Amino acid sequence: MMKTMQQIRGISAVCLLAVPLALSGCGLFGSESASIDAPPPEVEAQMLQTEGNNTLDSGVFGPVAQDDAQAVVKDSTKTAKATDKATVSGDRTTVYLEDGNGLLAPVSLNLPKSKDSGTLKNSLMALVNKGEYASSLPEGFQGILPAGTEVQSITVDKSNLAVVEFNSEFNNYDAADERKILEAITWTLTGQDDIKGVQFWVDGKKLTEMPLQGTPLDRPLSRTMGINLPKQGPSLMNSSAVTVYFSTTSPEGIQYYVPVTRFVPAGQEQLTAAINELIAGPESGDGLEMVMTQGTSLDSVEAGQNGVVTVSLTDDMFADGKEVPAELLESVVLTVAQNTEDALVQIRLNGKQSITDTDNVDYSKPVSAPEFLNELPL
Predict the structure, then answer these.
(1) What is the pTM for the complete model shown?
(2) Sequence ranges of the domains in the chain
(3) Within 13 Å and on the Cβ side, how many CA atoms surround 212?
C-alpha cells in the first residue's frame, strides 16, 4: 500500500484556493506552539468567533448503497489496517493526541464503559500526559494536558455546549503548548454527542483567558479555531480556512491520518479549495506525506441532490482505476466529510467509476466516512 506513495513522497506543489467559510467577530486568536505559528491577527479573531459547518470525525471506509445516501449512513467495517488490533470492551471514542511530529492526530481508543458524561470525562483524561490512560495509547502518541490534570466535572446543556471544569493542575502547562491544548480538548469533545462548543473552568472559576499566553476564552471554542495550523500563515486581509487530511506513519509503520487547517484567499467554492489543498500537499518538514501524485488534477466537485458529493480526478498513473493508493482516495473522503455535513462521496478517476484501492476497497459506489479514525494497535 505504501510503496507507491513512498515513491512520490516529498514532491512539492503550490496551489492555494479559497473557501467561502464565513468569518466574523473580533478578539485575539491566541498564541502559537513552538512549531506552529498563529495566523494573521484578523484571521485569528474571525476563526475563534465563527460558527462553522464542521463535522465529526470519520475513519474506516466502506461502500454505502445508493438508497441510503440521504440517511448519510456510516459504516464501521474495518479495513485490513485495523484488523490486527484486539477488541477491548469499553466505550470507543476518538481523542486528539500529540504524535511524534508534534501534531495533533485523532486516535480511536476503547475506554472503560461509563454512564452519562463519563465517556466525555474519560476522553479528556486520555489527553493527560502520564495520566491513567497513558498505557492505553499507541506507541508514539501522548496526551498534551499537564500531568496531574483532573476533570472535576463536565456538563452539556441544551444548546450542545460542553462546560468543562479542571483542577488547578490544568494551569501548569508550557506556554508554547497553550493553543495545542485548546485544540486537543475542543476537537476531542466536538467529535462526541453533537457537542458544538466548549467552555473552560478551573477550580470553580470560569476562564476568560488562558493563564500564560492570554488566549481569550470569553466565548466558547469550536472547530472553527482550526487545528495544526501551518508554520507560516499567509498575510491575507480576506482569508478563509479549510481543514484537509494528510497521512503519515507511526513508529511501528502503521499509516494514519492527520487534519491540517490551511488559510486561503476567500471567494471560491469550499470543497474545490479543499481538494486542491490536498493536491498541493503538506508543508515541508512537518512529517506528513503527499497523498496525491505530481500528476493529480481536479476536474470537478459536484454536490448531488441525493446527498452524494462526486469528486472527479485525473491521474495518468492510474489509468485503469485499479490499485489506486488508499491514502489518495481516503484523504479525499475524509476531507469532503470534514467540510460538509458528513456527505457520502463518489470518486471518479480518469473518467472511470470503477475504482479499487490498494486495500481492496471498492469505490464503484458512494463511500461513507465512518465514525472512528486511526484505530492503531497498542
Answers:
(1) 0.79
(2) 2-20+56-77+230-368, 85-222
(3) 15
Residues in the chain: 378
Phi and psi based region of residue 255 (left: phi greater than 0; alpha: psi -120 to 50; beta: remaining): beta
Q: 334 or 116, which is more confident? A: 334
**Pseudo-torsion of CA 132, 138, 141, 145, nearest 10°?**
-20
Higher pLDDT, residue 69 or 124: 124
| Residue spans of alpha helices (H) in 250-321 | 270-280
Classify residue 351 as left (phi > 0), alpha (psi -120 to 50) or beta. left
Read off the pLDDT of residues 303-357 as tens digits, 9 standing for 90 and up.
987 889 999 999 999 988 889 999 999 999 999 999 888 789 999 999 998 999 9
Average pLDDT over residues 88-95: 76
Cβ atoms within 10 A of the Cβ of 270, count?
20
Alpha-helical regions (H) of 165-228: 178-189
Q: Alpha-carbon distance 248 to 363, whole Å?
A: 22
3 state SS of 57:
coil
Q: What is the DSSP letter of 143?
A: -
Three cell numbers, residue 341? 455535513
pLDDT of residue 321: 83
Three-state DSSP class for 258?
Answer: strand
In Å, how far from its chain's centre is CA 173? 23
- Confidence tier at 81 by pLDDT (50, 70, 90): very low
Amino acid identity of 242?
V
Region 189-206 average pLDDT = 94
Contact 246, 283 (CB under 8 A): no
Among residues 280, 277, 347, the alpha carbon closest in space to that of 309 is found at: 347
Question: What is the rounded radius of gyration, in angstroms, for the C-alpha atoms of the chain?
Answer: 20
| Best CA proximity match to 149, nearest among 121, 176, 116 | 121
Write out the E strands in the chain.
62-63, 91-98, 104-111, 151-156, 161-166, 197-202, 205-206, 239-249, 255-265, 297-303, 308-314, 344-349, 367-368
Cβ(289)–Cβ(247) under 8 Å? yes
pLDDT in tens, 19-31: 223 332 222 222 2
126-129, long-range: CB within 8 Å, 24+ apart, which pairs?
126/95, 126/97, 127/95, 127/96, 127/97, 127/184, 127/185, 127/188
